[in-house]
Hints:
With 479 residues, the protein is an alpha/beta fold. Helices cover 41% and strands 11% of the residues.
Amino acid sequence: MYSFRWLCLFFFLSLSLCVSAFNIPRLGTLQRSYQHEPETIISPSSDEDLKTYYYTQRLDHFNYRPDSYSTFEQRYMINSKYWGGAKSSAPIFAYLGAEAPVDEDIYYVGFLRDNAPHFNALIVYIEHRYYGKSIPFGSWKKAMRNATTRGYFNSAQAIADYAAVLLHLKESLSAQNSPIIVIGGSYGGMLASWFRLKYPHIALGALASSAPILYFNGVAPQAGYYYIVTKDFKETSKRCYQTIRKSWSEIDRVAKKPNGLSILSTTFKTCKKLSQSYELKDYLDSIYTDAAQYNQPPEYPVKVICGAIDAAAKKTHNILSQIFEGVVAYMQNSSCYDTCSEMVMPIGHDRNDSMFPPSPFNMKSFVSECRTLYGVLPQPHWVTTYYGGPDLKLILHRFASNIIFSNGLRDPYSSGGVLESISDSVIAVSTVNGSHCLDILEAKASDPEWLIMQRKTEVNIIKGWIDEYQADLLALNHA
């Protein structure tokens, strides 16, 4: 599993989004592992401004077989508090849900809510099929029971779902002239950019935050992700970086002892005794990558980990004890630590200057795992065939418009993102210190100036799209 370093979601886009059968991290707008200050998640039903609806969605948008006309109920939510109404052609901000129930994103992804008053915009959140309450076949168990039912679980079907919901919404609100801006982060950011490319008649523009759309079919460098993780740690503390780098061989050394796995289990307080050393390596790998990916102010989790590791070095020369102190600081003190984490991180690492041991991606191994666990075969070339990838700058320069690709360069996924503007309207907005999807999270008083300016830039670009649209609409009505 340790060498199985590609987010299964990527290759399953064309056949089945990966659930957490692999004990590795995953893409996501929100950080899953780090314990922030206590916060209460408010359920959508408790928000007076948010109304929940269900759209009877078609199971298969691309086939004429009888079973393709089966349906399921897809959840979406609307906040009309700030909307200027259909008569004024006020815009619609649509958040495209990704690989999780949409509930938490509603409250943490504040970009729509923060900017809707200025635009008099309607806010819509649409849940991704097979997640939350938008599950076909009546239950998750039935939806995932075999390769046939899982076959409807892919990105092409998902963005076709969003198209159907948004067209239904415009019709029901008599809002045919209201421009739609689609917004998403991480995998959802990829969906937002692809939606604009595939459905330009529905979405006027897209904000794709931290969307690693180049991590397919060898377009982006395989080791790019882990290179940035290493860079983040090395720049935070060279001593910490060196300790982590040494720790892998130390784990191997201890594991080879007659009772080595027991020693490792005791040292790291694992909830279950380790059966292989790679379980611990996977766990530590995912902690470091998660911390780097979501290295957000004011906590800066990489600094938290390195601060604890460096402080421990003054008390003990035992490298693994130092590493464990980093785990405690990051995950917070607990009676035990579960190495079967739901965190995901992809790709291979094979650079000499990486703080991780060599572990290149192995396509043969990946295919074997997918066949064993899911009974289906990946299609690694389908994403670039369907959405594009190679020669992206050349093709999109003339073909595409009105897409913002936003990235923080401390985010390891930025190594697979669009970091240079492709045209006047396919624009890259990046910040040196930004992390994964930070720009679309709720604005806070403590936000640094560079983050405030990044969001302001994005808002001004969107305003320009809407102003141009309104001018075109006015000209057509008076023609």
